[in-house]
Design brief:
Largest sheet: none
Number of strands: 0
Mean pLDDT: 89
Number of helices: 8
Distance between the termini: 54 Å
Strand content: under 5%
Number of domains: 1
Helix content: over 70%
Structural class: mainly alpha
Radius of gyration: 21 Å
Shape: elongated
Length: 264
C-alpha cells in the first residue's frame, strides 16, 4: 500500500510546491504594483549578483567555447569543412550553451546565496521583526533581488557568449590555423539578431526562476542552521533542474518565434 501511496503523495507535494511558488509570485506582483522598489537595495544586489558573478560566468563561457571548438574542429576536419566551425560555435553559444551554462553557474552561486541569506534571517526571526515594523518581507527581501536579477542575468549571458566566441576564435584561428576571413564570414553569415534575442529571452526567464525558487527556499527555512543548509541545497538543485527542463521547452517555442537562421 505504501508503494501505491507514493506517486499520489509525490503529486500532491508537487501541487503544494507549485501553489507556494504561485503565491510568492502573486505577492511579488503586488509589491511591484505598489512601486516601493528600494533602488538602493536593488543597486547593492546588482553589484552582488552581476559584478560578483562575472568571473565565474566568463571562465565558464570561455572554456566552453574553447573545448567545443576543439571537438567540432576534429570532427569537421574529417569532412573537410573545418572553416564552418565558427558558424556552429556562434549559433550554439547564442542559443543554448551561453544561456544554459551561465544560468547554471548563477543558480549555484547566486541562488545559494539568496537562500542562505534569507534563510538565516528567517531562522533568527529577523523576518518576523520586519513584519512587526510594518515591512513586508517580500517587498524588502525578494523584490530587490528580483529586479537586480532581471538586469544582471541578460548581461551575464551576453558576457558568457562574448567570451565563448573570443575563445573559439583564438583556438580556431591561432590554434588550428583556420583563416580569419573564413571563420568570421561563416560566423557572421549564420548568426543574426534572432539568435541573440533567443539567448536574452532565456536569460529573463532563468532569472525569474532562480530568484523565485531560491527566495522561496529561504523564506520557508526552519530548524536553525540545519534548515538553512537544507534550503540552500534544495535551492541550487531545484533551480538547476528546472532551468534544464524549461530550457528544452523554451528552445522549441523560441525556434518558432526566432527561427534558426532567420528562416520564415
Amino acid at each position: 500500500m505504501e508503494l501505491l501511496r507514493l506517486p499520489g503523495r509525490a503529486f500532491l507535494d508537487f501541487l503544494s510546491y507549485m501553489g507556494q511558488l504561485a503565491s510568492l509570485m502573486a505577492e511579488l506582483g503586488r509589491a511591484m504594483s505598489l512601486g516601493v522598489w528600494r533602488l538602493k537595495l536593488v543597486a547593492q544586489q546588482i553589484v552582488s549578483i552581476g559584478y560578483g558573478s562575472q568571473a565565474v560566468v566568463i571562465v565558464t563561457g570561455a572554456f566552453t567555447g574553447a573545448v567545443f571548438t576543439f571537438q567540432s574542429y576534429m570532427e569537421f576536419k574529417y569532412y573537410g569543412v573545418e572553416s564552418s566551425v565558427g558558424a556552429l560555435i556562434s549559433v550554439s553559444m547564442c542559443r543554448e550553451l551561453g544561456p544554459v551554462l551561465a544560468g547554471l553557474m548563477v543558480a549555484g552561486r547566486v541562488g545559494a546565496s539568496m537562500a542562505a541569506d534569507i534563510g538565516t534571517m528567517k531562522v533568527t526571526e529577523q523576518v518576523d521583526a520586519l513584519r512587526v515594523m510594518g515591512v513586508h518581507p517580500v517587498d524588502y527581501l525578494v523584490l530587490p533581488r528580483f529586479l537586480a536579477m532581471m538586469i544582471s542575468m541578460p548581461l551575464l549571458i551576453a558576457e558568457s557568449i562574448t567570451f565563448g566566441l573570443l575563445a573559439s576564435y583564438m583556438v580556431a584561428v591561432f590554434g588550428y590555423g583556420i583563416p580569419k576571413p573564413w571563420f568570421m564570414m561563416h560566423m557572421m553569415d549564420h548568426t543574426n539578431m534572432e539568435d541573440l534575442l533567443c539567448g536574452m529571452s532565456k536569460g529573463f526567464v532563468f532569472g525569474i526562476l532562480i530568484t523565485i525558487i531560491s527566495c522561496h527556499q529561504g523564506l520557508k527555512a526552519e530548524n536553525g542552521a540545519v534548515g538553512v543548509g537544507i534550503g540552500t541545497t534544495r535551492a541550487v538543485v531545484i533551480s538547476s533542474l528546472v532551468l534544464l527542463i524549461v530550457n528544452f521547452f523554451m528552445s522549441i517555442l523560441l525556434n518558432y518565434v526566432f527561427p534558426l537562421g532567420g528562416a520564415a
